[in-house]
Amino acid sequence: MQQTTPIRIGGRRTGAWLARYALEQLPISHTFGIPGVHTTELYDELSQSEKITPVLPTHECCGAFAADAISRTSGNQIGCLVIVPAAGVTHAMSGIGESYLDGIPMLVITGGPRTDLKFGFQLHGIDQQRLVDGIVKRSWKVTEHRDIVPVIFEAYRTAVSGVPGPVLVEIPVNLQLFSQRVDTVPAFTPYAPEPVDVNRQIDATVELLCAARSPGIFTGWGAVDVADSVVKIAELLGAPVSTTLQGLSAFPGNHPLHAGMGFSRAAVPAAENAFAGCDCLLAIGVSFSEIPTGSFGCRVPENLIHIDISPKAIGRNFPAKIGLAGDSRLIVPQLLARLESRAIDRRVRRLDVEASIARDKDAYRAEWHAHTNDRVNPALFFEELRGQLRDDAIMTVDDGNHTFLAAELYQVRAPRTFISPTDFNSMGYAVPAAIGAKLANPQRQVVSIVGDGAFLMTGLETITAVTLGLEIAYFVFDDGELSQISQGQEIPYNRKSCTKLGDLRLEGIANAVGARFLTIENNMQIAAMIRAALAPGQKQPVIVDVHIDYSKRTRFTQGVVKTALKSFPLRDKVRFAVRALMRKVTG
Ligand SMILES: Cc1ncc(C[n+]2csc(CCOP(=O)(O)OP(=O)(O)O)c2C)c(N)n1
Ligand SMILES: [Mg+2]
C-alpha cells in the first residue's frame, strides 16, 4: 500500500461517505452504473458530489464501454463504474474485458452482500473476485471501514501504473450503510510514470537505426502520447510509419510518412510496399497482436527494436534484437534526443518514401472511387466526413467491416481521436463509447461509425445521449448483415450461416429514444446529410441510416482470409478447398 501523509477526518463515517471521499480525490468526472439495493447509499452520496456526476446507462455493459472511452479519449481521467454485485458485474464484463486486453485503466466499484449477517443465499451472493479473475489486474473485497479509502487509492494506482487496466473493489453494503470511527485517511498522490534505466539499449538502438538502409516504424496505442516525438524520429530517419488498429491515432494520418494500418498483405498497398524492404523495425507501444499483424502474417526483420511497457510483450510474437521495457512517454523523447545529436541526413530517402506512399495512396483511393453503384461509396463517405470534421474530432468505431473501412479510408489526425474495441473485440462498443468520449470532451465533435449488427446490441443506449443532450452523430452502416463474418464465410463456405440480420427500421429506434434521424441513400446525398448530421446547436444525438455499399472487400479482409488459410495444416486446407469447390458446383 502506498505511503502517504495521513489526513485527519475524525469521527464516525459511513462506508459510502468514505468511498465518495476517495473517488473525489481521483481524476473522475463521471461514474456509470445502475443502482441496486447494494449501492443506493453510495448513489445517494454521489448525487451530492460537486465533482462527480453519476450517469445512468441502460445496461452495465454500455456503462463499462462509456467508462473505457473516458479513459481512452481523455488520457488523464479514469473511467469509473459503480454497479451492483453479480448481475451488474456480469453485464459489465464485456467492457471490463475490453479495457483489460487493450490496456485501458478503469475503476470498478461494486456493492456486495452483507458481511454482518449469519445468513447465506443472499441476493447477488457470488464470489466476485473469482468471477472477474482473468479480466482485471487486481480485485479487492473491503472488510473494514478504515480500509475503504486506502484500497480505492491503491486500486487506482494499480489501474494506471505499468500496463494499465481495470481493477475492481467490492464494498459490502453493510459497510456503506453503517458508520464506524475512522480518524485518518491517507492523502492522495497522483501517479507519475516510473523511470527506467535504458541508456545502454538506447545507445544500441541509435546504432542499429543509423546503420539501417530501410528503417520502418510500427506504432501503437502505447505511443499515443508521444506522437510528436515519433513524427520527428520518422522525419529524421526518412522512415515510413504504420500503426496498429488501436493505435491509429498514434501517428497523424495526414503526415506524408504515414503508410497505413499494419504492413502485412492485410495492409493497404502503401503500407505493404513501404515496408517490403524494411531491414530494421522500430516498434513502439505495440504487442504485435492479431489484427495489426494481419493474423501474424507480417514479415518482421531480424533487427527489431521493441519498446513497450509490458516486458511480456517484448519479443513474444517476433524476436527482438533490442528490447526496451518501460513507459514510452519517458523512453521515446530520450531516443529522439540521441538521434537528433547524430546529424543523420536521410532527406533523399525520405522524399522517395513519401513519394511512393503518396502514389500508392492515390491509386488505392482511385480504385475505391471507381467502384460505384447506387449505394453509398465508403471512400466518398469517409473523405467527406473527414473534410467536414475538425482535426480534433473523435471517432468511435465498433467491430466489423466498417471498422476496417474506417481504418483504410478515414484519416485520423490527432492523438486519442480514434477508439475501437480491439483485442477483446467486443461488438456493441461504439454507441456507448461515444457517450463517454463526449462527456470527457464536451467541446469536441464526436462521431460514431457503427455496424447495424452492433447497433442492435447497444443502440438503445442512444437514449442516454438524448437525456444528457449530447451532440453525437451515429452513422449506422446499414447493410443487413454481420458483414465482417459473412464476408469471411463466402470463400471457404460459399454460404452464409446465421449472419443475415432482421429487417431493422432505424427510424423507429430514433423515434423511440427521441434522437434526430437522417438517411444517406446514395453518393449524391453524402455531403448534405453529413452537414445536417454535424449541424451544431442541436443538443441531441442524431442517428444516420447509411445505405452503405459493402460489395468491395477491404484489404484487411482479403489479406487475413489468405493468411489464415495458409496457416492451416495441408489436410484441412485440402478439405476446405474441396468443400468450397463442391458447393460452388452444387450451390
Ligand atoms: C460480442 C461479439 N459477438 C460476435 C462477434 C463476432 N463478430 C465480429 S465482427 C461481426 C459482424 C458485425 O456486424 P455489423 O455490426 O453489422 O458490422 P459490419 O461487419 O456489417 O460492418 C461479428 C458478428 C464479436 N466480435 N463480438
Ligand atoms: Mg452490418
**Helical percentage:** 40-55%
Strand order of the largest sheet: 4-3-5-6-8-7
Secondary-structure-derived class = alpha/beta
Mean pLDDT: 96
| Beta-strand residue fraction | 15-25%
Short description:
With 587 residues, the protein is an alpha/beta fold.
From the structure above, extract its key features:
single chain, 587 residues, alpha/beta, six-stranded parallel beta sheet, 22 strands, 41% helix, binds thiamine diphosphate, binds magnesium ion
Explain what this protein looks like in three dimensions.
This protein is an alpha/beta fold and 587 residues long. Helix content is 41%, strand content 16%. The protein contains 22 helices and 22 strands. The longest helix is centred in the middle third of the chain and has 24 residues, at 347-370. It is globular, with a radius of gyration of 25 Å. The model has no long low-confidence stretch (mean pLDDT 96). Thiamine diphosphate binds at residues 398-402, 425-427, 451-454, 477, 479, 481-485.
Which helices and strands, and how do they pair?
Layout: E1 6-8, E2 12-14, H1 15-25, E3 30-32, H2 40-46, E4 53-55, H3 60-74, E5 79-83, H4 87-102, E6 106-112, H5 128-132, E7 138-141, H6 148-160, E8 166-172, H7 173-177, E9 179-181, E10 184-186, H8 199-211, E11 215-219, H9 227-237, E12 241-243, E13 258-261, H10 269-274, E14 280-284, E15 304-308, E16 322-325, H11 328-340, H12 347-370, H13 378-388, E17 394-397, H14 401-409, E18 418-419, H15 430-440, E19 446-451, H16 452-458, H17 462-467, E20 472-477, H18 483-493, H19 506-513, E21 516-520, H20 526-534, E22 542-546, H21 555-566, H22 570-586
Parallel strand pairs: 3-4, 3-5, 5-6, 6-8, 7-8, 11-12, 11-14, 12-13, 14-15, 15-16, 17-18, 17-19, 19-20, 20-22, 21-22
Antiparallel strand pairs: 1-10, 2-9
